[in-house]
Amino acid sequence: MRRTLAAAALTLAAVALTSGTAFAADDYTPDTPPTDTIAGSTATATCVDGVPWIDYSITLTDPDGEAKSHTAYLRLSKGGESVDLKLGELVDDKLSGSIVWPGAAADGSAYPGWTKSGGAWTETSGNFAWTRGDIKAVIHVNPAVTVPLSYPATTSGCANPTAISAEDPGSNGSALATTGGTVSLVAAGVGVGALGIGLGLTLRRRRARR
Fold first, then answer.
1. In terms of DSSP bridges, do strands 94-100 and 51-59 run parallel, antiparallel, or are they unpaired?
2. Alpha-carbon distance 152 to 111, whole Å?
3. CA–CA separation, 86 vs 71, rounded Å?
């Protein structure tokens, strides 16, 4: 009888100890170490005066100083093609600005997927033409984030350079107008001078007759 009671007491003690341990384990929540992230950063395509640009805004959240780099890049890729665009250094964990689209030129003298020869634009499969289609865009610092990005809409002035001008700006109308104006002024000056000479000769003749 004593052995039975002792065994029962040990069993109850074991159950109580197990329950207490289980309760303590369920009640315990381990600390989750914070990680660095650039979630919320953006990259947006814009068309300004016929030139395609990428506007970017990057914010690094790094409470424990875990980021191994503060240099930001934007990687565009499609299939086996890719290009890394250096955006710059984060200052106080932030960076924003604009960069011209790869294959384009800020002065409008180049566009991705186009070449220019003798003043005429021709479509080409080179010069980053692949960036005008469905691409993947990822902002890298040390953490990275994928962002939605695509070439400016086909309705914008950046879609087709031939719609902007087949010639360099200022090579036609303004130059011709300036040249024509100069010739007219010279001709007018010559005419006024000739008229003055004629009047002078007429006055001399009249004085001579007197």
1. antiparallel
2. 12
3. 8
Q: What span, in angstroms and rounded, lies between the C-alpha atoms of 73 and 84?
A: 6
From residue 22, give the alpha-carbon distance in Å to each of 4, 13, 181: 27, 14, 96
The sign one gets for the Cα dihedral 102, 151, 108, 42 is: negative
Mean pLDDT, the chain, rounded, equals: 75
As a whole number of angstroms, the distance between CA 140 and CA 41 comes to: 10
Which long-range contacts does 93-98 make (Cβ < 8 Å, 24+ apart)? 93/59, 93/60, 93/61, 93/62, 94/58, 94/59, 94/60, 95/56, 95/57, 95/58, 96/55, 96/56, 96/57, 96/58, 97/55, 97/56, 98/46, 98/53, 98/54, 98/55, 98/56
Tell me the pLDDT tens digit for each residue of 192-204: 444 454 545 444 4
Question: Hey, where are the domains in the chain?
Answer: 42-164, 170-210
Give the pLDDT score at 124. Answer: 95
The mean pLDDT value for 164-188 works out to 37
Amino acid at 141: V
Which bin fits 183, alpha (ψ -120 to 50), beta or left (φ > 0)? Answer: alpha
**Residue 57 exposed, middle or buried by CB count within 10 Å (0-12, 13-18, 19+):** middle
pTM for the structure as a whole: 0.64
